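Homework-ish question, so no full write-ups if that breaks the rules, but can someone show me the predicted structure for this set?
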Amino acid sequence: MFMSDEKEGIYNYLRTDKKFPPIWCAGCGNGIVMGSMLRAIAAIGLDKDKVAVVSGIGCSGRTSTYVDFNTLHTTHGRALTFATGLKLARPELTVLVAMGDGDALAIGGNHFIHSARRNIDLTAIIFNNFIYGMTGGQISPTTPSGMIASTAPAGNIEPAFDIVKLSEAAGASFVARGSAFHIAQLNELMEKTIRKKGFSVLDVITQCPPIYGRYNRLGSPAEMLRWQEGRLLDRQEAEGLSEEAVKDKILTGVFVDAEKPEYCEEYDRLVARVQGKAGR
Amino acid sequence: MADDKAKVKLLMGNEACVEGALAAGVRFFGSYPITPANEIGEILSDRLPEIGGKFIQMEDEIASMGSIIGASIGGLKSMTATSGPGFSLMQENIGFAAIAEVPCVVVNVMRAGPSTGLPTRPSQGDVMQARWGTHGDHPIIVLSPHSVRETFDLTVTAVNFSEKYRLPVILLMDEVIGHMREKMTVPGPESIEIINRVKPTVPPQWYKPYEDNQTGVPPMAAFGEGYRYHITGLTHDQMGFPTSKLDEIKAGIERLFRKVTLALKDIQLYEYIMVDDAELVIVAYGCVARSARKVVHDLRKEGKKVGMMRLITLWPFPRRALEAIPQKVKKLVVPEMNMGQVYREVVRVNAGRARVVKVNRIDGELITPQEIAAAC
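A: Not a homework solution, just the prediction itself:
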């Protein structure tokens, strides 16, 4: 009974009559992330007309096609710039920005850090699968060192970005990490990230079985999800554990939840100040 | 014309551009610092908050272009201003605005290139880039003012065209126009025609955001107004969703061109100066048209039958207006501050009828009337 209600909830937000099935490969984690995003929107009770989903280019970029909101599929890496203009023009909209790891942090890296610095009220959801999937498996800024990719056939010699540390340093007011495997936690994090005013980032570790998994012999989608189960650890659970026990873990949960001035509100204050002066 | 609210001011071109933008209803401006366009953003950062409009300095010109597209989708008339290097960075997103049919205006105060080139020196080197800078076949409108007052007028026109035809419109100024001060009368709002994009009137469930009609310009809903729809840079069907169906691809791209072709009479602006009896016609635009105008007057005093066609719209190139000229003149002179970008268009339209001569400077200095006269 609970499950069928749950399904109803998601289907209510999907363009199932128009653009399904999605282009995503069997076993891809993107649908899980998108589903979690929709559950969070349902839980918050947002009006569909007042939600905009802006996306970049790549597998994750297709998210905007499938969801029944005001949807904008932009250019590669630039989703945050379009979202910034849209949010300023329509501050009443809840603007979610779906990006891939390469999209958000390589070609879009500059926009990412500056959106965080401004602390503009956007929700950045990074579908982090460690690879450029749509273009065939090139290294991305989050591909771990040593992993195989189509442009690193002998192993990646570059270090990876830590999205949490990067976002925090750049000024984001909310930073969290979750995964496609830990779906209950992801739903919760998704809701918190969307609710937070200011630039909020959710790094979602997800699986790309046919490209990243194949290059690195990581097995079936289920096996890749089990890898997430084994390697990821809720930071609250990590507290009190020995250094040895958390050494190889990737921590999840909420890392930053700060109160900072939000850009659109600051802009409104500026307008009030300037207009007040003009009136005198 | 009696104009009570008209104000006489001493303005530079960049200031007139700001006045025109505000008069036309621009309420969002996103830009990145660059010489010689800076004044436009600086003044708007002061003026827009006063009227509740939005100004934002973005992290680069790619972001500026993205921000104005986003704001336009949110329903605000949007503009950015830049110069050569920034204009290069904007090109990909200009293409997005063209295929997604998002109204917006890009002001390019041209400086000499290529690359960093001569940041404080004038040039007209971006004429072809303004037409073909972004990849793929796309329509675009490019306007070029020759005075401070015309900068005001054409900024209004650029905003109007962008709204009317759902296109990115490029206002191609040269540095001389941007930084030159002239006395001008700022027209009152009652004498300015304002065009706003057509919005859908059908219920949301009937709305087809890219459906063809007689004008080829579909009504545009802003995000948040109850018409939930999809906008993409992918080739799309009439619902806005990506398509790979051959007939839908062809129909969509052809409509983009048709909406401009249908409106060529409205879009192609030019000025004939003493062309009727001319034996020689100078084809000029922007600041060079000022030198050319003097040549026409000087040579007329000497009894030579010289005229001028001043291009105001550079793209779509006013072919029909130019075509009529070489049938009765012996020579066309095309002075411009580049290696001959409009010259190539004139040669094409002339089709071997008159002799076509170019006069070019690429050293960051103006073309003088003497230099043009020497070619006449």
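Now go work out the reasoning yourself. Hint: Strands of chain A lie at 51-55, 70-73, 94-100, 123-128, 131-132, 138-139, 174-179, 200-205, 232-234, 250-257.
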